[in-house]
Structures are given as structure tokens and as C-alpha cells.
């Protein structure tokens, strides 16, 4: 008997270790960093780098960090909020839709989610990567994995992908409202800190290979939205939130966190921005991290602990984080609108 739902929705998040222990973190980091879209260098070089240097060095330290944000009942914050987003979206869409959740790395895997959906014989399947800004290393990797798995199916429903929603109205409204929980005027400056990427990945969106991007992007990136340029989409998100809050350009800085390795990544780095602002006498910072739809290790530890401590050592006083979209009803409504519009 056919499943009542006729349409499938697959939400895909990055992933999280199964537990805050070194073996589980090692397994997660290995799968994540061995993705050729994440570390885009030849396979054997990547293998030596990831398995021979990065993972052995980082696994135990990362496990200790995960342990500080892990909840005994709900586990990983990213998993907790992702499950809530899946459940709440299911409630919003009703019986005509079936909403499934998957992680690009680790569990629940895209393979297991699609295997379940294959047997439901949907008329259509819509894939929504939970990354507002398009990047080959995130959204691109998810789309590639979904297509790799589905090409083996013996029947094909209508399949669609939402590749970005960097200036989505609901996303912008939710983050703006979350920031109003704090007294914005009491902060000396505002940071928009996005996850970084190697600069070389910006240019790879040009199939000719002729596009060469500077470390901090071209001037056009900062004023126009390009459908496949991660940097331009980060600036588009920033502009949309700034307009919603009435922020002038001198009130905020766009920067990039989570740099890995010695190759040039998109600049300015968040750490450098902290140094520059502290040198100028800034004491209180309000930080948005709009690359993440759920609070996770990058927002709960990297910004609220690591960068906050660094800023205080430089003479600053406070680093306050604007919470992510998480299970905010307006964000769930926005996800529903994406599904219905696509």
C-alpha cells in the first residue's frame, strides 16, 4: 500500500560525531575532511594530510571541546536543533509531505534517509541543504552525494534542490529579532562572522579555471549577489540583516572563522578583526554567525569561548552571540515557504 504522503522533503545538515569521545570524533573528522570538495587537493595528498596529520592531532582536542557543549539528554546541539527543525516542519506541512533528516557526514546518513524515501514512492523529492549561502564544500557536496546515490534508483521522481537562500526574508527576520533580545545600541561594534573557505575555492565556480579571486574577494562580491559565489552571498546576508536593523556600514565588520591549514583563506579572519577592533578601543561586541542555521560547536565554543577569551586578552570586555535560527517558529515557517514555492 502506498504511503499517504506524496511528496518528500530531505533536510541535510553537515553532521556531528555520534558521541563526544575521541574514536567517534576521529571517525567524523576523517569522513568530513576526506571529502574532495572540502579539502580540494589530490586524493593521496589529502589522505596523508588528513589521516597522517590533521585528524591525529585534532581528534582528542575536538572531543574535549564537544564534551563541553554536549547535553546529557539531547546530545549534540546541532543534532538536537536539526531534529526539532525536521519535526516542526513536518507538523507545518501536514500529511501530504514526508520530511526526512540526514547528515552529510555520519548519522543519520544521506544513504539511509534516501533508502527509506525510495520505498515510499514519492511523486517528488525536494532536497534542502541547511546552509543559507551556497558553497561547493557544503551545498555542492550534498547535491553531489544525493545524485550519486539516486542515480542507482530504478525509478526517478521529480527531484529538486534549494541551492541557497542567503537573503531569505524569514532567515533575516529571525536573526534580526534574535539580536533585539540584546540592547544593540549598547555594543560598540557588530561582527558578522561566517565560516571561512580556502580562497582557491571561490575561483573554482568558473569551469574555465580563469577566475582568480583575491584573498578578500573582489569589490563586486561585496555589493552584488552572485548565485554561486560564497563570499558574495555572505555579504548579501549581511546587507539584508543590516537593512532590517538600520545599521550603517561603519557599525559592522564582515569576517571569516574556522581557518584550517596554511593556505590562504577568505579574509579578513575573525581573529584579525578582533585584534583590529581591540586596538581601536572597542570593548563590547555583538556577533552574528549567519552561515549556521543551528547553534553548534562553531557558535557555542569557537565564538563564545575561544574568540571571547581572545578578545578579553586584547583588552575587550564582552563578546555576545546572537543565537542561531534553531527552532524559531518564523524560521520553520520560512522552511515551509521554501518547500511550497519550489
CATH class of the largest domain, please? Alpha Beta
Q: Could you please say which CATH topology of the largest domain applies here?
A: Rossmann fold
Question: What count of domains describes the coordinates?
Answer: 2
Overall body shape: globular
Average pLDDT works out at 95
Poorly predicted residue ranges: none
- Percent of residues in β-strands: 5-15%
Name of the CATH architecture of the largest domain = 3-Layer(aba) Sandwich
Task: Give the proportion of residues in helices.
Answer: 40-55%
**Biggest sheet: strands, sense, closure?**
4 strands, parallel
Tell me the total number of β-strands.
8
Q: Given the helix and strand composition, which structural class is it?
A: alpha/beta
Order of helices and strands: EHHHEHEHEHEHHEHEHEH
What radius of gyration results from the CA coordinates? 20 Å
Strand line-up of the largest beta sheet = 2-1-3-4
Gap between N and C termini: 27 Å
Count of helix runs: 11
How does the SSE layout of this entry go?
Layout: E1 7-15, H1 22-33, H2 43-69, H3 77-93, E2 97-105, H4 110-118, E3 124-129, H5 136-150, E4 158-161, H6 169-179, E5 189-195, H7 199-203, H8 230-245, E6 252-257, H9 270-279, E7 284-288, H10 297-313, E8 318-321, H11 329-341
Parallel strand pairs: 1-2, 1-3, 3-4, 5-6, 5-7, 7-8
Helix pairs in contact: 1-2, 3-11, 6-8, 6-11
Summary of the model, kept short:
The two termini are 27 Å apart. The protein is α/β, with parallel strands linked by helices and 342 residues long.
